[in-house]
Amino acid sequence: MELSKLAKGLKGSAIREMYNQAMTMDDTISFTVGEPDFVTPKPIIDEACARWESGMTHYTPNRGLPELLQAIAAFHADDLSPDPDSQVMVSCGATEALQMALFTLVDPGDEVILVTPAWPNYFGQIGMVGARLVCVPAREENRFVPDPDDIKAAITPKTKAIILNSPSNPTGAVIDRDTCKALADLLRGQDIYIISDEIYSRLVYDTPYTSITSFEGMKEKTVYISGFSKMLAMTGWRLGYAIAAPEIIRNMTKLHENGASCLPAPSQLGAACGLKHCVPEIETMRLSYLRRRDLICSLIHDIPGMSVQNPGGAFYAFVNVKPLAEATGMNSRALCMDLLKKTGVVTVPGSGFGEAGEGFIRITYATAEEKIREGMSRIKGYVEGFNVL
Ligand SMILES: Cc1ncc(COP(=O)(O)O)c(C=O)c1O
To answer: By CB neighbour count within 10 A (0-12 exposed, 13-18 middle, 19+ buried), where does 20 fall?
Structure first.
């Protein structure tokens, strides 16, 4: 008997490959999985625990509990101002919302444009709907911000959707206001949906954040994706959400009903409490990531053969290791494996984020400052040990 071609064809992510490899070793310093090292803020945990205790152990509405849908709508009152009764849905992490969006908008054979380097799951998710992936590279010399002309050149009559991710995982690039406007001008007249993954939008450091949805005609054709994992350190709670036109949300909810069905009430009420009462905690965590960003960038600049574009958001440094790769004859995957074996420092090869990522490694800095110092000092020792740069 044969398993499905789809299942057999799906690749695991390079992030998990490195993570699993590191699990077999002692004294590692992990710069891999993109998750905050903070524990979820206490008011959220207290709220959820109280709800479990009170017996909230049952199924919930597919689209989400009204309390959470309303809290999300209120949180977005100044930007998307969605109607909580028809334009918001809750999902099993942003991951599921992204998959439901693709299933809702795209048919097999349609083309989906993806700006790369990109979060590995997009590749698998586009494959799962049977769409054709069209990669548009975001260039290092443009701080990894996509060039609207490159996107224009990638559009064909078969293009059905484009996935935008700002701030970006893995590059930390934030799409600036002018580029957002140029993209909006390009996409306004086209029959192309936008899936805008803005899960890191509360974690920006240098300039005010702009969403493509703020430009005329964009809300109507965009599925806005966000979640609680990054901004409220709730990765393990598996809660995300989508905001879109009522017709899109209605259809995404049908898919969600058939897939995940619904999310636990205590988690949803915990998240609602977070949106209402934990905005100061989001700011405290953001400031801490900003300090770590500055620290890690200064330490990277001190290492021969490595350089980094200042990441404007999220918590990733996408480090150019091309001189080191050239001098040692190792590609980014071989370098990351060698680094792990010799120093116990776990990073992710840039090639895991698409071909455009070759020659880079991703370092997650959502980790304590002492660990950043120790990990970067081991990396420096490793590079200097080659004596070639
Ligand atoms: C760009 C991006 N989108 C979505 C997700 C998924 O988030 P969630 O935990 O809400 O599923 C991640 C997680 O790393 C991510 O980096």
So the answer is: exposed
| Residue whose structure tokens are 């996408």 | 318
Rounded distance, CA 318 to CA 350, Å? 8
Structural domains for the chain: 5-39+280-386 (3.90.1150.10), 44-277 (3.40.640.10)
Q: Cα separation of 63 and 65, whole Å? A: 7
Q: How far is CA 276 from the centre of its chain?
A: 23
Q: Which residues line ligand 1 (CB under 6 A)?
A: 34, 93-95, 119, 165, 169, 197, 199, 227, 229, 235, 240
Instruction: Quote the ligand 1 centre to 381 CA distance (angstroms).
Output: 32
Q: Find tokens 């086209």 and name the residue.
A: 190
**How do beta strands 222-227 and 240-243 pair?**
antiparallel
94 C-alpha to center of ligand 1: Å?
6
* pTM attached to this predicted model: 0.96
**Cα 146 to averaged position of ligand 1 atoms, centre (Å):** 20
- pLDDT tens sequence across 331-373: 999 999 999 999 999 999 999 999 999 999 999 999 999 999 9
- How many residues are listed for the chain in this entry? 389
Residue 73 main-chain phi, psi, to 5 deg: -60, -40
CB 68 within 8 A of CB 213: no
Half-sphere exposure of 269 (CA within 13 A, CB side): 14
Q: pLDDT for 307-338, tens place per residue?
A: 999 999 999 999 999 999 999 999 999 999 99
